Amino acid sequence: MEQLWVNWGKMGERFIDNQRIEGTLSQMLEGTLAFIRRNIRNATVVDEDGRRADKSEYPMVAVREIILNALIHRDYSIHTDHSPIRVVLYRDRMEVENPGGLYGRITINDLGKVAADTRNPFIAGGLEVMLGTENRFSGIPTVRSEMERAGLKPAVFESRHGVFKVTLYNDPVEKVPETIYVLPDPMRRIVEFCREPRSRIEIAEYMGIETPAYVVRKYLRPLVEMGKLRLTVPDAPKSKRQKYVSV
Questions:
Q1: pLDDT single digits (tens) 188-216
Q2: In this structure, what DSSP letter does residue 195 have?
Q3: Which end of the chain is flanked by fewer CB atoms within 10 Å, N or C?
Q4: Are 68 and 139 in contact (CB under 8 A)?
């Protein structure tokens, strides 16, 4: 019987709960997910329409894929009889380790991009039938997309010393501060002048520039691309009737 340990560590120095899960592969999968659900934190989120929903500390779709991959791809040889799959929950992360590093020719950088060699093809095929899993390479992309959708840091994958390890972090990705772009003075003046629709000739005269084509190239096109101005005749940018108006 395959064995799977789940531990919930507070600071890494001790465990406040642990469970040894045994049974068939499907029983261990569901038992592990149930234990994780009991021990991770949940928040109640209210959307703009006032609807309430529970949000897990980790996206459970990603967690399921990781546990399932561990059960499918672990090394079941006699060399790992006393090396169970380990799931450890810390305050800031979840770690899943299974005996047996990456199998075959695949590398960490290839994960989710190419079809991997399968260490246990009969197990993968059996679970595909029983659980509706896909015996392909969609699990890793699913983990990555679910973490991104949850606004969390990307999952970390490691393979070393005969152990494959996945780490999920529960802290959100730091948002890049919004850049506030200040228009140069000539552009700002043009935007103000174009509160009413103005032709390129009118704008050139206002700016004291003799060549309207230069004004179009230097100022008007960039302002249109930035969404600061719009064309009154958008289907014919070079129309003689063309005018520019502030957005």
A1: 999 999 999 999 999 999 999 999 999 99
A2: T
A3: N
A4: yes
Helix 25-39 to helix 121-131 angle (10° resolution) is 70
Check if the beta carbon of residue 16 is closer than 8 Å to that of residue 5: no
Q: Helix 60-73 crosses helix 139-149 at what angle (to 10 degrees)?
A: 160
Q: All domains of the chain, ordered by start, with CATH?
A: 3-169 (3.30.565.60), 185-246 (1.10.10)
The three-state secondary structure class of 149 is helix
Catalogue the long-range contacts made by 30-34 (C-beta closer than 8 Å, 24 or more residues apart). Answer: 31/4, 32/4, 32/6, 32/67, 32/87, 33/60, 33/63, 33/64, 33/67
pLDDT band at 13 (very low <50, low <70, confident <90, very high): very low
Q: What is the pLDDT of residue 102?
A: 82
Angle between helices 60-73 and 121-131 (to 10 degrees): 140
pTM assigned to the model: 0.62
What single-letter DSSP state applies at residue 20?
E
